[in-house]
Amino acid sequence: MDEYQQLVSLISLTMGVAWASGLNLYAAILVLGLGGASGGVVLPENLQVVQDPAVIMAAGLMYGVEFFADKIPGVDTGWDALHTFVRIPAGALLAANTVGDVSPALQLAAGIVGGSVTSVTHAAKASSRMLINTSPEPVSNWAASVGEDVAVLGGLWLALNHPVIFLLLFVVFILLLIWLLPKLWRGIARIFRKLGQWLGLSDTLPAQAPTPTALADELQKLESMHRAGSLSDEEFSAAKRQLLSDG
After folding, report:
1. Cα–Cα distance for residue pair 243/237, rounded to 1 Å
2. Which of 63, 91, 122, 172 has its CA at a distance of 20 to 30 angstroms from the CA of residue 197?
3. Among 71, 173, 85, 179, which residue's Cα sits nearest to residue 121?
4. How many CA atoms lie less than 13 Å away from 186 in the CB half-sphere?
5. CB of 170 within 8 A of CB of 15?
């Protein structure tokens, strides 16, 4: 039974670290580092590096920068874009170190799964914030940013203290992402289409196909010109094929 509980706790912490890294990497490191350094939590040996004062200070500094950058509409989107290259590899590395002293194969597997979890969490965060930024008021942006910080703190607390509850909520989160991400990406695609129209990079209105009535009128005109001798048989056939093709 003890081995089962240890396994559940290990899986919970591994997924929790990866998930939290996708939302706010520096907050996740800061929470783990302060918790381990204060003796409030016992971290796996390979993860205890986050307890080092230098790591805590660096994470605290970067969290302070992100705290303000994440609450400025537009700046937060640029920050998220840059951190695509930071959060995902860091989340994979933290997840690999969380599993402790195991075989290299298991450690690599934990890194792969952890990196994937960080990727989808980061994608959901960045996509939702981009859509929120279309709103002219900044309140929704601030609320989303504070909510993410609270979620990191609460999620890691659950992962450390109530691993079963965290894993159940984590499964619900993944299922929600499967449903939500395509909708977020379609919304972002609409934003880029509108930007393209405003910048003149795409047509404002799509080309409209001729109505059935207009098509019939054009065919009658071609027939009249053919009977009058204005169009040869070959020209009439080619013009008719082109008209039907356009319609």
Report:
1. 10
2. 122
3. 173
4. 5
5. yes
HEC secondary structure over the chain? CHHHHHHHHHHHHHHHHHHHHHHHHHHHHHHHHHHHHCCCCCCCHHHHHHHCHHHHHHHHHHHHHHHHHCCCCCHHHHHHHHCHHHHHHHHHHHHHHHCCCCCHHHHHHHHHHHHHHHHHHHHHHHHHHHHHCCCCCCHHHHHHHHHHHHHHHHHHHHHHHCHHHHHHHHHHHHHHHHHHHHHHHHHHHHHHHHHHHHCCCCCCCCCCCCCHHHHHHHHHHHHHHHHCCCCCHHHHHHHHHHHHHHC
Tokens encoding 134: 């279309």
At 135, the amino acid letter reads S
d(CA 167, CA 153): 16
d(CA 232, CA 240): 12
List per-block mean pLDDT (blocks of 10 residues) for the chain, which spans 247 residues. 84 96 96 94 92 97 95 91 95 92 88 96 92 82 92 96 96 94 85 74 53 71 74 75 70
87 token code pair: 């959060």
Per-residue tokens: 84 = 């695509």
